[in-house]
Amino acid sequence: MDVPRLSIMDRLHAAVLAIGGSGLICAYWIAFFHSDLTLPKFVHNMTNPDVVRLATVYMGFESAFPLADLLVAVTSALAAFYLIGRDAKAVLFGLVASGALGFLAFIDISFNLLHGLYAPANLLGDSGLQMEAVINVGCVVGATWSIWRLWGHPLRRAEDRPSRLSAMETASLDAAGN
Amino acid sequence: MLAAPVTFAPEFEVTVPLPIACLVAALGIGLLVEAIAGAFKVWTYRSPLFLLVNIVVVFGLVQGYGVGWIIGGHGALRGVFPVLFMVGAVLGILIEGLNQYWLHAWSWSDRPLFGISRAIDKSAFVGVAWGFTPLLTVLFARLIVKASMGV
Predict the structure, then answer these.
(1) Is the overall model pTM greater than 0.90, yes or no?
(2) Which residues, including other chains, have CB under 8 Å from residue A113's CB and lie 6 or more apart?
(3) Is residue A139 assigned to a domain?
(4) Which domain holds residue A30?
(5) What ipTM, to 2 d.p.?
């Protein structure tokens, strides 16, 4: 079987999956459970009862993410692992990881928008929320780029790609005709 | 004058600290896993040194002391369980990848493992299964600490 070589872009993609999809997610959750680094400033505000209520909801919401992020981190690592090995399973795990990452990012964005956390007044004065906004945008952009790359990747099976299959059939018919 | 009674009872209780318990528990898990793998010839090491390194460094220091104690050794376990598995599995896939593509310190037998026949798939499967090591380490380590306190 003709195995495609690992291109520079594939190396970059594997690094993005391994470092961005797996490493940074692990680092984020270690920091979340062991420091205040990832928390927005407003969760420390104990004077305003409305803010305290929002902080309780926010912490409950965030605490539900580790199990879902486990799926993203593990499938991203598997995608990088198979991509380095030039194996077609890289496409499967990469699409699962990217789809899950995009889904989680949109849930997070939706929560932050609905609760006014991305209002300029809140966003400009809170470095924790700014970091969250950067993470959200990074996740959406990274997931979209990864899906786009994997969809057109040579490792994707020809049977799953009607356009490629028809091109191969046309080429074989031409060869038989000649 | 009455002489004080001589007793051999210890003057203080010896309890095992959690970091040491994590290391011991992970080493125990490593020995058990390698013993089972060796008995069924699931994988074989190129040199006994790699077996020793795997048990002491990867199981004991990295997954046990490193991941188990640093992430799961503080406070309540309930919320941090997925993070323990996540970090353990990601490190496991990294270790298996290093071996599969560069180190070749251990190799897989030809027999299928839970229906998996290709070496690359076995590496990926075992890489994910590494996630259980820090989880079990922390659970066993807490039992060791409790047992040492006589609870």
Answers:
(1) no
(2) none
(3) yes
(4) 8-177
(5) 0.86
